[in-house]
Structures are given as structure tokens and as C-alpha cells.
């Protein structure tokens, strides 16, 4: 069951807000959330509006709903901590960047994982990866990872008509974020995989160019998919996140 998760660490001065991606789930951050908690931080892993339900209900929500929800979560905790860090996977990174623009949020840093400014649709390598994913048995580690990270029940080919509006909202959010990148002043760390079949690796360059007015670092992965990260590269991400927060 996909549910939001909150853990308060006694005496913590920093809090981390984890924001999942389009059709994603807080389950994507289980190990990263444990890592930041063990290193002295409180955390919130949100469940965005329309997620954790069926495709028909998911289609009722859009970018404005997702951004307002994250803003409400930040407002609920920001006065209790000296610094707030935002961690976003995929679309969650777009939301995190926009939330960092609000000065009252006290955002000390934004950690991006597979955040798209360009999406792979017709690239041959991407299409081949998607076909491989469909062909994998249910118990395959890659297919299992995608099943865990998908919070929209009944999302099959028959649900595609319900996704037209949310996908349009996603593209509008991408365009909005790209426009405001020069206004981001919080430090940013960007994680991208060259084999990501969804978020084009070109997004890393677009982000780096747009985030020209802040300190930023980029880390490239060689084996990860968009929603599946082998154990060794998950350890790299966790290590970079702890380093970034500290």
C-alpha cells in the first residue's frame, strides 16, 4: 500500500522532504529515507494527490495540486528546523526546484534524481529498453522495481485515455521549471543515468545550463534505469545525498 511516511528525529536541526515522480510512490525512497534518518535528520516522504489510487481518479489532479501539496508539507515542518532539503525523483525534482524559489521555505539544497527537462519517447535505445521491460517475468528485479514504484492501480493500456491530461500537466510543469531555473539559488546535486529510458540524459546538460546562478554538481550513473537502481548505484546515490546534506 502506498502511503506517506514521516519520521521525526529527536534533536534534529535538518529535515528532508522526499517527492516522488509521475505515477510514483514514497516506496521509491525507503533506503534513502533510512539513510538520512540514521544520519540525524527528520524526514517526510509525501504521497502526491491522485497517487495511490486508480487511473480514473489520478486524472482528476494536475501540477497545481501536486505543487500545493508539497508546499503544505514544507509549511508544516519548516519552523521546526534550521534547514530543509528537498529530494525529488523524476517529476518530483521539478516540484522541488520550484519549491526552492520560495524564500520562506528555507531550502538549503535540492537533490535531483532522474529529473526530466526532456523525455525519451521515440529514441531507439529507449524503446528497446521498454520492450525488454515488458518481456521480463514478474519476478525479475527490474520489473519488480517498476511494480513497486507505480502507485496507480490498474494502470494498463486500457487506462491510457485517463493519462492524457496528467501527461499534459507534466509537460507544462517541465516548461515552467525550465523557465525559472536561473532563479534557483539553493545548491543542487543532480543524479542522472545514461541508460535512463524515460528522462533523457540530455536533461543533465539542460539543468546544468539553466541552473547557472547556483552551486551545482552532477553525478552520472551507468547501469540504472528510470525506476530501477542496482544496489551499488543506490549506495552511490545514498552516499552523495548524505554528503550533500552534511
**Proportion in helices:** 40-55%
Structural class, from secondary structure content? alpha/beta
Please trace the helix and strand order, writing H or E for each element: EEHEHHEHEHHHEHEH
CATH topology annotation: Rossmann fold
Based on CA atoms alone, the radius of gyration comes out at 17 Å
Proportion of residues in β-strands? 15-25%
Whole-number count of domains: 1
- Average pLDDT metric: 92
Uncertain segments: none
CATH homologous superfamily?
Answer: Alpha/Beta hydrolase fold, catalytic domain
Give the overall form: globular
Sheet with most strands:
7 strands, mixed
Q: In angstroms, what separates the terminal alpha carbons?
A: 32 Å
Number of strands: 7
- The CATH class is Alpha Beta
Strand order of the largest sheet: 1-3-2-4-5-6-7
What's the architecture, going by CATH?
3-Layer(aba) Sandwich
Q: Helical region count? A: 9
